[in-house]
Amino acid sequence: MLNNLLIIGCGLIGSSILRACSSKKIAKNIFVNEKSKSNIKKLKRLKNNFKIVNDLKTILPKMDFIIICTHMSEYEKIITSINKHLNTKTILTDVGSSKENIIKIFKKKLNKDISWISSHPISGSEVSGPDHGSGLLFKNKWCILIKEKNTDNKKLKILTNFWKRLGSRVLVMDAKKHDMIFSLTSHLPHLIAYNLIKTATDFEKRKNYNLINFSAGGLRDFSRIAASNEIMWRDIFFSNSKNLSQVINLFIQNLKSFKKNIQRKDDKIIIKKLKDAKKVRKKIIKLKQDINRPDFGRG
Amino acid sequence: MLNNLLIIGCGLIGSSILRACSSKKIAKNIFVNEKSKSNIKKLKRLKNNFKIVNDLKTILPKMDFIIICTHMSEYEKIITSINKHLNTKTILTDVGSSKENIIKIFKKKLNKDISWISSHPISGSEVSGPDHGSGLLFKNKWCILIKEKNTDNKKLKILTNFWKRLGSRVLVMDAKKHDMIFSLTSHLPHLIAYNLIKTATDFEKRKNYNLINFSAGGLRDFSRIAASNEIMWRDIFFSNSKNLSQVINLFIQNLKSFKKNIQRKDDKIIIKKLKDAKKVRKKIIKLKQDINRPDFGRG
Fold first, then answer.
1. Which of A103, B49, B132, B210 minimizes the number of CB atoms within 10 Å of its CB?
2. What is the pLDDT of residues A70-115, one digit of tens each?
3. Of B88, B96, B19, residue with least CA distance to B60
């Protein structure tokens, strides 16, 4: 059991960690640092045992474990303000969705004797805020931990156990690989969803049609993830822009080829492409990344 | 109540019509024409009252209502074979997802005294076949009927009532408007989903990464509709290729602009785009095209 745990930023992810750590008794004392007054109000309604702290200076040296769950664009400011109060023994982590850039910030801003091991729990939703949090949010979900050349193996083990206690399946990889993988499996799909909604809006204006009324035929499925938090996704897009640009280019290249196949009525090629996609879906279900229940629409 | 109803092609949609017409007693006699032996086997397990017919010639003149529910690529052959046995009084319709092209086929292949009013029920799933059908498939879903210059208003009224009895909300529009709207709300989203899965597969091969394992971060959402029936979607893509090409171009143009915004870190523009998408999501929920329940993953 940890003695003192500090959560900086307590929205959907932070409050889910708070709930799980409280109910599973992972830490004796949980401290929460949260700027938003509306979030603090929501947090006060929770029945979990924790203390809200504004002044971090005095408590920082005593912390066993600190986890930053704010938007990534706030990391630099936070690191700068907490850096000189940190204890070398403390386990330090964050939950950001893109890694190479934020690790650069850590390296630039942190004292050399302070080590940081970055985490990325693959969990979330299109909703945000502490009222939507859940102690089960991480259960059976991947959590990626970033190992670098100088990563302290003891601390990595403690961090691994922390996420396992929350129910996560932990996987260790380097930042470069992480950012490439998630540029395709998460960042591109979100961008594509946003772009499809933007295209629908543009088309609606141009044609003066009421499109949205007929969104059940496919568009609806994309609109859910396009309702995700805009600060979070701006930060991810900016932070992983190099990899994202690459996969956008690959996507456009493939889309142009699809268009050509359609215009030319390349029967065999199209059928192969569509059948191959179905195989990937089967693999996704086999890997328990989605359920096999067909979707016939709302309700 | 109709006397004699014939369903040609009895997969997901045809068998759902069969179930609803049987349970709601919409027709006294229901005839089913189905080529696939495996589908016939599945149909025979249904407890609904209907007759499977192979030779249509003798029964066609007696039909009050005929509905084609095969893949669109089979329409021409079917129309050619049934044309000379059709009764001018019969209500004739289909459930194809694209309209301008198939109406051209009807005009070319049907005797001049035979009238056809095309239907498009906006319902379905990524699964197909009569075992997945449901008598409630059309409940509260849109069904678009296509009205042309020479459409018989009496027949249109009967067809409207037919779909309303199945629970649909009926809307009448012309083929051109239909094909433009659904190129964006349905055909483009499916193509984009297929293309995203193709891009993921290509990227996986190129980088030798196991991407699919991490598809819960967004990719998963797209894989569901990319598992749809390949014959159906090839037919739709080919049939509505002109409109589809236009919206693909608009989509690519918007995606390139998004990429530029990201590379330049155009903060205000990105935030506006992402916020605007959220508004569309709200509209989709308000119009009851989706439910408001957040999605935290499988289960």
1. B210
2. 999 999 999 999 999 999 999 999 999 999 999 999 999 999 999 9
3. B88
Determine contact: B52 vs chain A, CB below 8 A: no
pTM, whole model, 2 decimals? 0.93
**pLDDT, average across residues A268-274:** 97
Give the CA count within 13 Å in the CB-facing half-sphere of A68.
Answer: 24
CB within 8 Å: A199 and B189: no
| Contact assignment for A192 to B290 by CB distance below 8 Å | no
List, for residues A198-209, the tens digit of each pLDDT value. Answer: 999 999 998 888
Nearest CA in chain B to A296: B125
CATH of domain B178-286: 1.10.3660.10
User: B258, A198: Cβ pair inside 8 Å?
Assistant: yes
Question: Would you kindly state where each structural domain of chain B is located, as residue ranges?
Answer: 2-173, 178-286
Nearest by CB: A197 against B221, B265, B277? B277
- Going by C-alpha positions, the residue among B3, B65, B38, B210 that lies closest to residue A173 is B210
The strand pair at A119-121 and A142-146 is best described as antiparallel
User: Which of B192, B231, B299 lies at the smallest CB-CB distance from A192?
Assistant: B192
CATH code linked to domain B2-173: 3.40.50.720
Question: B203 and A262 in contact by Cβ < 8 A?
Answer: no
Helix, strand counts (H, E) of chain A:
11, 8
* Widest CA span in chain B: 70
Question: How are beta strands A65-68 and A91-94 bridged, if at all?
Answer: parallel
- How many Å lie between the alpha carbon of B83 and the closest alpha carbon of chain A? 27
> Mean per-residue pLDDT for B192-203?
95
